[in-house]
Fold:
Amino acid sequence: MSQDAPAESFYEPLGGGRFAGTPATAGPWSPEFQHGGPVSALLGRAFERHDPVPGTRVARVTVELLSPVPVAVLDVSVRVVRPGKRITLLEAEMTHGGRPVARAAAWRIKEAPGHLEPVVHGPPPPELPAATRPFPDWNGFHTGGYLSAMEWRLVGGSFGEPGPGTTWARSRIPLIPGESDSPLVRALTLADSCSGIGSQLDHAKWLIINTDMTVGLHRDPVGEWLCMSASIDVSPGGSALCEATLADASGGFGRAMQTLIVDEHPAS
Structure:
């Protein structure tokens, strides 16, 4: 792939659990390091493909970001921690050059009976805005990777404005070439953006980086377009916590949460 050619996917599979990150994975802080969305989605894909059991689904994924993940070749491995017919605990590790850069855990559980009466709290999501606005230059951050690989339709406001915020979004490219993204992959690709959508802090003044992400899904999302409403709580002498609700055109399907470090930007 040419250095200047647009990426056709977030990752290129190399076989044996090895993947090469394309420039589309790059996050806003640097073109050399990946956004957490593709990283989380790649780990989620690995969970879904590890000894799948019919009639079960991945209901919760927690990703621990151990260090910045380079836009480079990564190895992903999965193991079963707690096997079972109704509940299984899985763990995954992502390494670069033999060094762990991310770890994740997932609960794969038995699907609820189809005749169960649904109970969903919260109002329905706002309507999908009709037009997509191009992603603007955002305080000098790198917008040519993940941020441009996603199609965003903000509900009011604009990028860079203080949150809380709500957006509809979908990926312009698949996680892996030639594959259709699963509902879990679509949710994880978006969910790590919640602190960017919901932040009430000035990103030009404050360094705000999540150390983890947890996504819980009470059902699988339907359709390409997903809606996320997010907000951040932050305390002096403490840290920040971002919470988000996830929805599709039919209503809510899950929640996301991040723990974030907040600090002043290093002196240039």
Q: What stands out?
A: The radius of gyration is 18 Å. The chain is about 10% helix and 40% strand.
